[in-house]
Amino acid sequence: MSDLLRRFEEQNKGIKVVLDQVPFKAINENLPVQLAAGQGPDLARVADLGGVARYMLDLRPHLKDAAYFETNFGPFLEWMRVPGDTSSIPGFMTQLTLTGPFVNKTLFEQANVPMPGPKATWEEWAKAAKDVAAKVQAPFPIAIDRSGHRFFSLAITQGAKVFNDKGEPAVVDEGFKKGAQLVFDWHKNGVMSKELWGSVAGTAYRGANDEFKNAQVVMYESGSWQIGQFDKTIGDAFDWVAVPTPCGPANCSGMPGGAALVAIKTTQHPQEVARLMEFLASEPIAAEFYERSLFVPGHLGIAKKGLEYKSATPQGKAALKVFNEGVSQLSPVATKLQGYVHNRVIFNAVISRLGQAIAGESTLDEAYQRIESDVQQQIAERTRK
Amino acid sequence: MTLTSKTSPATSPAPAASLAPSGGTNPVLKLVTRVLDWPMAGLQRLIGERRMPYVFLLPNLVFFGLFVFVPIAINFVYSVTGGPALFPSERPYVGAGQYSYLFDCGSYVDPNTCREDHFWRGVYNTLFFSFFQVVAMVGLSLLTAVVLNMKIRGRGFFRAVYFFPVLLSPVVVALIWKWILQRDGLLNAAIMGLGGDRTLFLAEPGWAMFWVIFVSVWAHMGFYTLILLAGLQAIPTDIYEAAEMDATPRWRVFWRLTLPLLWPNLIVVIVLSLIRAVQTFDEVFVLTGGGPGTSTLMVVQYIYETAFSNQVQNFGLAAAASVVLGIVLFALTLAQLAFTQRKSS
Question: Does the pTM of the predicted model rise above 0.90?
Answer without folding.
Answer: no
